[in-house]
Amino acid sequence: MTGVFALLFISCNDDEYGPRKESTPVIESASVTPAAFTFGDSITLTARITDPETNLSGLAYEIISNNRILASGEIPIGGASHDVAQSIFVPLLSSQADNADVQVNLIARNVLKGTASHQITGLTGKRPVYNQLYLVTDNGAVATLTPQSGDKNRFHADGLTYETSFRYRIAEKLYADNSIDYSGDVYGNVNGKIGMISESGESAFAYAASADYTKEFLFDSYAFSVTTTGSTLGPDDLALSRFSSSDIGGELFRVLDLTLEKGKTYSVFGELSRAENIYNPDFFGRTAADKITFLGETGDYTIYYNPVRRNIFVGLDNPSYPDYLLVCGWGLGYPTNVTSADIAAVYPGKGRTHTDWGFGNVLNYVLMRRIGDNIFQGTFYTPGDHDHYAGFKPFENTGWGNEKRAGNFTFTGEQIIQGDNNWEIPNGENDPVVESANYRFTIDLNNNTVHIEKVTL
Prior knowledge:
Helix content: under 10%
CATH architecture of the largest domain: Sandwich
CATH class of the largest domain: Mainly Beta
Radius of gyration: 34 Å
Distance between the termini: 92 Å
Largest sheet: 9 strands, antiparallel
CATH topology of the largest domain: Immunoglobulin-like
Number of helices: 2
Structural class: mainly beta
């Protein structure tokens, strides 16, 4: 009886795993297409493996060039025969020779650990050729890397205004909005070194020591190395390293006291040169990503940068008529491209508009600059996009001096203001909803007119 159960047990194992008969798989055919390929592309491995005696279990592969393993893995197979058609990515490694011999080593296995090996030779790997590459930082800055004369593998960018440390990727292709197109080659961080990455890969890190900003970037696509060159700021250069931090109205600002000259152009670096930053258009003209021209009168100012709102504006001690008007109340804000939802995620309950009745800090009011004799200009986001209401009034100084009542003015352009006292954008049940947008107010005190136009920044 014991022998019968043993035979039954063996019979069950045979049904589950196939006959327990020693055998080895047979790799009947195997090939790779294309036979000549570019490192950083994918190849297709096709093979037919059979073993009529024992079920197949896996096909292991190694792709080797210059005695280095470029890629390896195992493809599950099964049954008595299996046809493989597998796409395999072959990365470009550092110091990889061009037109290099490549071989593929295969090992087929069955469930009883029988093996068979095969080698595919006659393959050639070529280095990719780039006409240019793109340096893309994690904060959205993009610089073109051009090949150096005499060395097609070294790509260089000069005249940068980046921070001394930043995270980046190097891309072969970009979409129209400057985001990375991963159908091309992309380099980033691979285990602490530069290497090819996919969309799920990590950014690499660069640092320029003993400097105020990063001026040059050099990528060696053969050695997979990066060299940065730093530089120091000049007297007319603006970078966050010169700014201090200050809490204003519960928001973190970076601030810098500086004498600004009317008509003078200043270079801005790193964080301050980000494309999404908005420089108050009443006081600054942005002539390039890293160039601003001051439009106000020469004098001593404080520059305010809000890293959440991503806007830059100026303030000064005791601003007053005849150079300025000050507007306080509800529902105004310096222009920003950041949404109220994103602002509220950092500062709960806050949004694009930030003014209040009073002059306690620079968020309570906004400045209008004199652009002519008794003519003042101010560009503000209004009304609040949470309630579409605004109620405010211009004054001549922080002592509530010489308020400008709405009923004393004639309004032209966008007809968004009502009221005889406060300048109101109403939100009553029967009032039309005014679009929350950037509006430019031009107040002419010579004839008591106000022109309002919607502007795109």
